[in-house]
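Re: the 935-residue chain
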Amino acid sequence: MSYRKTLLAASIVASLCLSGTLNAQDSGQASQATGSGNASTAPTDQAKPDKKVKQMAAVTVVGIRASLQKSLDTKRNANAIVDAITAEDIGKFPASNVAEALAQVPGVTLDRSMPATQRVSIDGMDPSLNLSLLDGHPVAQAMWLFGDQPNRGFNYSLLPPEILGSLEIYKSPEARLPEGSIGGTVIMHTIKPLDVPANTVSGSFGINYNDMVNKQRPAGSVFYSWRNTDKTFGVDVSAQHYEQITNRQGDEVFGYDTVGNIASQNPAIASEVAQGKLKNGDLMPQEINAANFQQIEKRDSVNANIQFRPSDSFESTVSLMWMRDNLDNVNQSMYPWADLRPGGIASLGGVVNGIVTQGSSVDPNPPCANDTAGACGQKAITLADNFARGSTVTTKGVDWQVMWRPGDGWQISGQAGVSSSRNPMTSALKELAYGGSFDWNLYKGFTYTDPSTADNPDYWADYGWGGNFSTLMYKSRDEYGQLDFSKDLDGFFNQLQFGVRYASHWESQTEMVYTGATPMTLTQIGFGGLTNLEGMSSFGFTPDMRRHIQTAGADAIRDAVLSTPGLLTSAYADANSYWENSWNVRQQNSSAYLQADFDTDNLHGNVGVRFVRTKTSSYGWNVPGVCLSADSWNCDFPTGFGYIGVTSTRNDWLPALNIAYNITPDLIVRGAASETIAYAPYNQLAPYFEANDTVLTATAGNSDLKPYRSVNFDGSLEWYFNDQSVLAASVFYKHILNYIVNAATEEQRINGSWAIPGFITSTGQALVDSGRCTQAGMCNYSVTAPVDGGMAKVKGFTLSYQQPFGDSGFGLRANYTYSDASTSSGGDLPYNSKNAYNVGPYFEKGPYSGSISYNWRSSYLAGGYVAGAPSTYVDSFKELDLSLGYDFNKHFGLSFNGLNLLNSKYHAYFGSDKTELAEQYKTGRAYMLKAHFKF
């Protein structure tokens, strides 16, 4: 248990005590930023007639200019440092999901490894260090990609933007806001029935097209809202269906080996080293992988709000949510693997900055056909991993908000609810092999010496190991309850707020791997012809890299694996995989806050403190080495082993101060100071170990991790020089007292696949020959695990500009962000780009509208996406998006959006010097054509 109360917290508590001497008044400046007294009860203050600020929930704006003005009103009237987006912003600017809309905000950057953007950074911080709330409450989200590393960052790609009326991004916290954010807090608001006209019907239908595959998919949405004539009761319902094609093509390098290690096993390379043509310390890629990820996302959702407001003193809203997102995908990796058979390497060369960029692997014997037994013993080998993954995320939730004003300046509000999300993922793997000579080039790919056999499905087979079938049940659940009180005061402090909150989050995964599938040839599995990866053409890849063998698709892969009789029974279940990849974590937060808002003619803000007690319980399997070696269910666990749990409890005081001063009515200066905490991703807290037994990489958890903790200072200067116009600058400084980093270490463990029939005679024996494993299966794994990384500092500033140009219809908004980070260990902070900017000219006049958005961010460190994948440095990335619209009348219109019009490439490297290529992808341009209606 830890207990800590800072001087900053003590001083703020002292300031709050002064408010006890003040008398009540009816000033109502409590929640200028959100139009609510508390983030969790956003609708409740909207009925207050004495509010001075514009209320946000009634989204009736029309057009780009009106929506930009509404966003500026929110920013201008806020106590904290806040940015906002309205529904028209989201609808008018190119956005396939909420994350794309957030990219327009200063300080917000996106990671685009996947087209459906999930990872959003605010002020240079890791996406896991943000907090996202829907109508003030959390939304449970299950992981969607098999083998991904879960994080606390909100997956915006799963949330349909049609349901939102507005959102705010808090750059500086307030004591009333829930804990858990260092980067920023995003509060999204759905449209409520009492805020739109009765019998409103709106929606859209259209198509999404991806030029990488020259195919399109449908999308549509409909919204209906009803309210009675007294405007005291209303119901709205929205439904969406959305489909999107994702095709990511490129190449990957799983890791690098030293020339010295190859030379110790290959006399020809040892001779090259002796002659000085190569150095022992030079690095060569282990393989060059042609990566092809294919997915058709199908998302359905239904959302409803039931609102009852019989008077200005009482309001109740029940919100219902249901979403199902089908994210099945096929991933093919084709990689000639030079250092798996180092004896077959005939030459290495083209050394650039210590990196070997080309080589040849030669097998003196002709390729073998139908080698399902893996008996040929090839000296040059290519593997083709064919994954067919099933993934369907189902999310449900119910939320109840209530507000009561008993009089005398008091308001009591509450919120309670639950949401759950589950994904019963599956993965079928067929790992085929071809034993034939090849040449490779780091920048151009691979070329086969004998294309006639390389393109013949009979020469590709499981080579002794028939693949596996895996199931992974991932679950997530949130339960929460909150009670808030506010009292209007008379004097400098005009409102006092206090409340309590309880939140419980539970997350778990259970994985089972069934091994021993019957080995097959590609012909038996189902030959799908040769690939046509023309998306790779701009990389300059070889013809063999772009056109090579493939299976007949997901059904062929899955059916081939499951054709083994009795495969999905306990006789084929792998014990090690279950023990190492099954865990659950529960975090319970009990918190209370006290906040005082103040307001004079030119000065307003708030000061407060939040106390939070965090209890974390982590469970995972602790398995004795003898059981791991046996890889058998029939093993006795001594005392201290088995499914064990670790529980920790800590207390934290989190002070917050926000102050804004109107130098003139149009010139505002702001300052903020706060202390915040955030938590490690749930899987990092679990005592688990997840390994890739083929390439000997792994990722592990650490139940002893402390929370991230940061002392923050923020400031801004904002000049609202005209309608819809602003010129603003902000600064931020975060002194992070504890930052969690991933550390890579080498650990010797028993290979969990060693006992699998056929594994030792194929991949396993090669790992023994290369010196990475013993004959008993003890292997040297490169294990990536989280550790407390010491202190870090992040400092930077943003510049933003927005203005319409008279009556021309043209306007411009632009922003720039500078973020400089340093750590006590000398490493880099994940997802921190030093420079980023966005330029967005727009036009709106009469029935015509249009906008262009150009985003650029500099290089940054990113975490690996699959188990054991090391962190990489992503190169700078640019994106150009376009949106056009035409309204036939007030009821009908058309819109056209184009995303990634530059067809930008995503490059990542091992190391910040950008010499060790890790991956490079292209995902193509996406186009959306929609017809809109509203009555």
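The first helix runs from residue 7 to 18.
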